[in-house]
Design goal:
Elements (H helix, E strand, L loop, with lengths): L15 E3 H8 L4 H16 L7 H13 L4 H6 L8 H17 L6 E4 L4 E5 L2 E5 L3 E5 L4 E7 L7 H13 L1 H4 L4 E6 L4 E3 L7 H23 L1
Parallel strand pairs: 1-4, 6-7
Antiparallel strand pairs: 2-5, 3-4, 5-6, 7-8
């Protein structure tokens, strides 16, 4: 199959976002939205991107899986490269608070999650929780972690939880979506008063604007 090209023979990069990228987009306002989309497109064209949080996620998952109470989180700061130490020192205490908030380590363990590719209006969005949890009482949670210095905006919280809930049959059947603000150890869940239809309409509008900006930045 050949790659579509424009009239100037430049490969056409279809609009696409990870859940992180899309939720960061909806949290912005005004011209910052277009600037952000342009940055995402350039990253996509260069196939660039690096996740500095990978070792911290592994440490948190290890503490849950092996019921070690935070020993992996406590040691991971010394394992990362010097440039990442300030980040890990800032995030690890909140991660430990979250770990302890899960309760008795014998009552919770990891659950396998899967990614999903969502169609939000005209936009493809990759839905990718960091891990799943299963509790002794049968509850399940699909967990997405928020690492940014600023807390997640209400818009980012709503979008993240709605997108995960929308595809929970693929991600973690019978699971509940959870967004954890890791720096503060705070857990966010779906607002029971929110109307899914209203959220869906809002996200479709945001996705349509994202797609238009994506095309504009290619011009």
């Amino acid at each position: 199959m050949t790659t579509p090209v424009s009239s100037t023979s430049t490969p056409i990069i279809p609009p696409y976002a990870t859940m992180l990228g899309f939720t960061r987009y909806v949290a912005r306002t005004g011209p910052a939205k277009a600037t952000f989309v342009g940055g995402l497109r350039r990253q996509r064209e260069r196939r660039s991107g690096f996740n500095p949080h990978g070792q911290l996620v592994k440490a948190l998952k290890a503490d849950i899986a092996f019921r070690t109470g935070g020993s992996y989180l406590g040691g991971v700061v010394e394992l990362v490269k010097p440039r990442w130490k300030p980040l890990y020192e800032a995030v690890s205490p909140g991660a430990l608070t979250y770990l302890h908030s899960l309760g008795d380590p014998e009552e919770v363990g990891l659950a396998q999650t899967r990614e999903a590719l969502a169609s939000v209006g005209p936009l493809a969005v990759k839905i990718n929780p960091h891990f799943g949890l299963r509790y002794a009482d049968g509850r399940r949670e699909a967990v997405r972690l928020h690492f940014d210095e600023a807390p997640p905006t209400p818009e980012a919280v709503t979008a993240t939880l709605h997108l995960m809930a929308r595809h929970m049959d693929q991600i973690l059947p019978n699971g509940e979506p959870v967004l954890v603000d890791l720096r503060r150890g705070a857990t966010h869940r779906i607002d029971p008063g929110a109307r899914p239809g209203d959220v869906e309409s809002w996200l479709a509008g945001e996705a349509a604007a994202f797609t238009a900006m994506w095309a504009t930045t290619a011009a």
